[in-house]
Amino acid sequence: MQERLLFGVIPVYGLLISIAIALGAYLCSRQEKRLGLPKDTTVDFALWVVPAAVIGARLYYVVFQWDMYRGDPIRILHVWEGGLAIYGGVIGGAAAAWVFSRVKKVSFAALADMVAPALILGQAIGRWGNFVNGEAYGQLIVNPALQFFPLAVYVQQEWHMATFFYESLWNFIGFWILWLNRRRVTVRGNLFLGYLCWYGFGRMVIEGWRTDSLMWGPFRVSQVLSAMLVVVAGAALLIRHRRAARLS
User: Fold this and answer.
1) What backbone phi and psi angles, to 5 degrees, belong to 77?
2) Which pLDDT score is estimated for 139?
3) Short-list 148, 123, 141, CA closest to 222
4) What pTM was estimated for this model as a whole?
5) Omega prior to 150 cis, within 30 of 0
């Protein structure tokens, strides 16, 4: 994979990740007071979560693509080449957030709601890193009438489904839904559960069209995980809604 550079020196993939992190931190900082979190929680939180998310995203990818790194383990450190699995980042970040909540004695649910809109926006931006690196594309499109962007993307001298774009668009829509409804969702943790349902459903569908999915035997890892998250998060929201209805 050829590293794409801006002005010949700046890795584009790394730049997109940096932009996503900066925007995410700004959005989180705007929600601290509303969620009852101490001032400057975002700064401390980012110092814990961002490194853990990057490490988790990389390790998740490497585990399921070990044959690529077995002969040259130092390449594991070359994150600018791509190979950051979103779910690995979510898992790593969630683990760090839980530890942070225990150490700082703040609500984990409030932290999760704070980060939900920022997280899905970051995922929407990060998918363009896949475009830059020529990855995360879908099945071959042979009909010339359908060979145009954004429906398709030209990679490896062929037209493929632009699955990176489909997911980016889905995530941008999800961001606006979460952001516009953040004040209406009063039960802590529900906004994050909504994120899991929205992102999980879109990823479950789109993953089935990709040609470079991480595999575990015959299964697409992210597709299976997405389905599980939709079921679990959806059930949790339903249970919470019924419990609230009984108490009202």
Assistant:
1) -80, -10
2) 95
3) 123
4) 0.91
5) yes
